Amino acid sequence: MYQAARTVAASSSSRLHSPVAWSRKSVQEGYYDLEAGETERTPLLYVRDNGRYRAKSLHRTNDPNRVHPVALGLMVALLVFLLIGVVIGVYLLLLTVQRPWPVSHPFFLVERPAWWQYPVALEAATLDRLAVTNVIVLHTDSEDCLDQERCVRYLQNTERSCWAARRDHIPYNFLIGGDGVTYEARGWKSQHGFVDLPGRNTTLVVGMIGNFTDRQPAEVQYAELKAFITESIRRLSLSPQYRLHGAVNATRPSQDSTIALYSQLERWLHWKGFVARDQP
User: Fold this and answer.
1) Are 182 and 213 in contact (CB under 8 A)?
2) Which residues, at least 6 apart from 190, have a Cβ–Cβ distance to it below 8 Å?
3) What's the burial of 249, exposed, middle or buried (CB within 10 Å: 0-12/13-18/19+)?
4) Residue 221: which residues within 8 A CB-CB, separation 6 or more?
5) CATH superfamily of 127-277
6) Which of 15, 38, 114, 256 is the most buried (most CB within 10 A)?
7) Cβ distance 151 to 181 under 8 Å?
8) What Å distances lie between residue 204 and 55, 138, 241, 274, CA to CA?
9) From the CB of residue 257, how many other CB atoms can be counted at a distance below 10 Å?
10) What is the spatial distance between Cα 265 and Cα 280, in angstroms, rounded to a whole number?
């Protein structure tokens, strides 16, 4: 009897130290059987149901809408690289825009409403900005203006006389005074008003206020002309491959080509010679 008791105790001890497993009956009934001989490898959780303990698996459920942190990080990095690429591309594109020269003189502009505040509004044909490839420079063959008050008075008087003579506006696109300031006449968006000058739809006409037949304009006027050209390119109103011209009378081209105004312009990079006009 003593030997039989030891055999039963050893058998019970062996079962208690074996892994927790399911019996086939317990699988159907849904509770643990500590006496089963099969090994259960899935973690289980005890839940109480009607006084009995049921086993519940601890497997995690996968959310199909959940974004993995690594994938999210890769998407953010890709967007950052794309943004950097766009910025570099825009910067390289801006570098391709040619500047005719380094400009140290700032650009000063007095717009038309600042000097002409009368009811008659500007009415002129629209300029095809994408086709603007020429700049014609000529002098006004008038008195100089060395301050803004005199320059504004000159523009107002010229506007009145043009309107009284032919019901038209001042013919220049811009004028540059001896004060080193650019004055808007017809501007970048309208055709010039010189019927005897070519390329009305492809040309900006700039007048240097004063008579520069025997003397050159002041250096500040030349510097402002450079600043005006650079600003026109920056505004996409003038092609970087523009052509710079002077204007001469068709009846005396050799005489007009020697006026002092053009002695410096002829050395500029984009100078392409003279265009003839029928009137002085």
Assistant:
1) no
2) 122, 124, 125, 126, 127, 173
3) middle
4) 176, 177, 178, 180, 208
5) Peptidoglycan recognition protein-like (3.40.80.10)
6) 256
7) yes
8) 90, 11, 14, 15
9) 15
10) 20
Nearest to 235 by CA among 273, 193, 189: 189
Closest CA to 100 of 237, 239, 274, 204: 239
Domain boundaries, the chain: 127-277
Q: Contact 182/174 with Cβ under 8 angstroms? A: yes
Total-model pTM:
0.64
Strand partners, 280: none
pLDDT band at 153 (very low <50, low <70, confident <90, very high): very high
Tokens representing residue 138 in the block:
């000529």
Structure token pair of residue 205: 């006409």
pLDDT tens digits, 2-56: 555 555 455 555 554 544 444 444 444 444 444 444 455 555 555 555 555 555 5
- Rounded Cα–Cα distance for residues 122 and 169 (Å): 7
Rounded Cα distance between 138 and 260, Å, is 11
Other CB atoms within 10 A of residue 110 CB = 19
DSSP letter string over 132-192? Answer: --EEEEEE--S----SHHHHHHHHHHHHHHHHHHHS-----SEEE-TTS-EEESS-SSB--
